[in-house]
Each structure stands twice: as C-alpha cells, then as structure tokens.
Amino acid sequence: MSTTRPVLRLTALAGAAALTLAATAAPASAETEVPEPDSFTSAFTVMATPDTIINPDGEAVPGEEGATGTFTFRVNSDEEIICYDITLQGVTGEYESPAKTATHIHAAPAGQGGPPRIAFPNPEGDDSSRTSSGCLQGPFTTGVEADGADTGDGFTLADLEADPASFSADTHTAEFVAGAVRGQLTEIPVGGVDTGAGGLATTTEAAGTGATAAALTGVALLTVVGAAGAVALRRKA
Amino acid sequence: MTRPASRRRRRAAAVAVVAAVLLAGCGGGGGDSGDGAAGSDDAPAPTSSGSAAPGVTAESSDGTPEGTGDGDEPVRVEIPAIGVDEAPIDLGTAANGELEVPEDPDRVGWFTGGGRPGGRGPTVVVGHLDAVDGPAVFADLPDLVAGDEVVVTTADGTAVRYVVDRTEDVPQDEFPTTAVFGATPDDQLRLITCTGPYDRAIGRYTENRVVYASPA
Predict the structure, then answer these.
(1) Full-prediction pTM beyond 0.80?
(2) Do A165 and B64 touch (CB under 8 A)?
(3) Is the dihedral angle over the CA atoms B39, A193, B48, A206 positive or is it negative?
(4) B188 inside 8 A of chain A by CB
(5) Three-state DSSP class for A204?
(6) What would the pLDDT profile of B120-166 be if each residue is shown by its tens digit?
(7) Which of these, A31, A61, B96, B128, has the minimum number of CB atoms within 10 Å of its CB?
(8) Which residue of A has its CA nearest to B8?
(9) Non-local CB neighbours of A212 within 8 Å, separated by 6+ positions
C-alpha cells in the first residue's frame, strides 16, 4: 500500500535503494494488505476528538483544536482481518510517530495511555479532509518495541472483540505528537437488518391444493436444501 | 435462523438462548403479536433480549456514556409522509453481531450504541416491513423520498427535525456498515427496513432499504 511509503522514508535511510528499503522495513511477520473478506464477526466505530488526548506521562493534553476523526472498523476475527474506514477533518501538517505509521489502535482505556497494537496507513488528503480505507490481516506489528518485543506481538482481534472499550484509535502529527484526535471504540452491528417476515412478499409459492401438496412439499424441501447450500457458499466463499 | 452459531465470538453463555430466540424472531416471528399496538405503553423486548439488553453493546459498566456523541435518547419518531408516529424501543447488538430488531412488528426500535438526536453520529431507527400475515410498522418506508420530513423527539422534549437526503437499497450480505452505523462528526438519522426478494429458505428478505436523513 502506498501509504506505508512515508513511514519508510521516515525510518529508513534517505536515498537508499528501494529494494533495500523493502528488505529492511518489512519483517516477514508484518500484517499484509488484503481484499475485503465476505463476512465479518464484529464492527466498531470511533468518534475521535481533540479533547481526549493523553500524553506518555498519563496527562491530559490538548489535541488539534477543531479537528475530528471517524474510524470505523469491521473485523473478521476468524481470519484475523480488520477493515478500516478512516476520515480526518481539520488534521493538519505532517504525521509523526515512532511507530511505522502515525494512525493506530492503542490498548488504552478512556483517560489512559497505552501501547499501539495496530498501525494503519495514514489517511491521505489535505488539511481539511484526509481518508484511508482498506483491510489488514495480522499478525500485526507496530514498529514500536517495549520490553524487547513489538507492541503488536501477542495481540489478536479477539482481544479487541472481548473488550472494545479498552481500546482507542488516534492519529499523531508533528505538532500534536501525543495525538491530534482520539476516541474509544464502541461496538456497532454487522450484517443486514432482519426486519421482515415475508407477509408482503409475493405469494406465488404459497401452499397448493391437496392433490399437489405432497409433490410441492418435496420440491420445497429440495428448494430449502439447495438455497441453504447456496447461502452457505455465499457467506463462506 | 441461518447464521451458523459457530461464528459467534463471545457471550458464549448467551449464545444458545439467543439462537433459540432468533429462531422465533424476525424471520418468522410476529405472527401472534400483530396486535401489539395495544401494548404500546409497555417496554417490549427486542428479539434477542436474552443477550443484548440496552447497555450491553457499549461500555456502560464504568458509567461511560454509550454511543458516539451527545444528544439525548429518542422517545418519539414521527414520519408524517407515511403516517408513522411511534415510541421506539431500545435495541442492541445480537450475539451474531447483527442489529437486534423489535419482536413486535408494530414497533420501531433504535440502536442505543450509536448516535442520539441532537448529538454527533447517526441515530439508527429500524422497523419491520411486514409480519407473517401482513404489513408492519415500516411497510411504507420504501415510499419515503428525498425531502420528506422526520421528527424525532428526545427524552428532554427537544424535537429534532430531519429531512431525507437519499434512499438506498443494499444487499443484506454486503451491508454498508460504515455508511450506516459509522461515527459521523455531525447529527445524522438512518431509517431501515427490509426490501427486495424474500428468501423463504432462510426466512428473511435479501435486501435492506436505508433512508439517510440529516437535520433540517
């Protein structure tokens, strides 16, 4: 993904050959950009604001006044895939973070700091609006080490599903290194909304008369089996 | 119902109960509750009340406000163009990750983990298109068009006027989660019901009608 390039430029030697960059900055265990899966096990959203920033010393500090961020995550924890739709409004200037990108999910409850667990491609755009969308498959690495291990080590999306409120999302800039905007994850529904029982649907398949009832039942059973199979394929494919 | 229970990720203890309730829920439910209007002053449960009572979906344990913004709880939803005037019930997230739906086809519900009228984020209101034996509370929702008005009154008495921006039919298995439920910096309203072909094999409609509205 092209959005990783700025980080490479930040963290690697300027002017080094592209091949060298790729070799040194992409550990084999790092997350990979993947297509969107066919189904999700959960979803979360974040309303990020500048009045929620906590610095590394655990102190509340201001973020970028007037800026907002919306982060919506769709998770398939079976496949360890997280899809992200991020929009920043009013976040200005260059990104800056010791991690490999400056846009993260942290293990950090409201009012507390905490280490990054996932580093997302930084939203791209101008100072009024920046966006970033895609899907990453773990295991995840952040490029930040604590106690000799990457802060993404051992983290799985099941952790996020188990206690979303203990995770935050944010983005860091040169002017607001502790965070320009931040917010906590809240769960939202996934999938469609099952608001109908068929009473207004076409009635062409309604029960037949006695003479054909048995045959219709057989056909109906076959139809049910076939359709159920098709649905299963659609959901799993 | 059809979603495989093996996909469920947590609240394991509640899964069996919820699965059982879902079997009798929206897909085939409502047959004996078509007269639900009589009970409109009660607090009817959503279909999977065994799992996701209001407050379960968000971090309420430490008193942190639910949802993604301020505003206040909706207590009345009026859609003059289709003759809807209802008191919404609370809905959370079911064990399979989907939005709960009202058990009573004559009631509308709102997602308590999202936005609230007058605050940031989308307030999401849903209602059934039909029961097994006829139309339900949102039978005419597909008739709404851009420019129609929706008034949502909150618990503090504020009436927030919304105007329909657009409507959209979406496949239920490719539901636009971010567009419908994702946080927004401003006040938004979404109205949802079913539409499209009804799949009798799985006992549910295959599409949703989504109505997007913003403050007038």
Answers:
(1) no
(2) yes
(3) positive
(4) no
(5) coil
(6) 999 999 999 999 999 999 999 999 999 999 999 999 999 999 999 99
(7) A61
(8) A41
(9) none
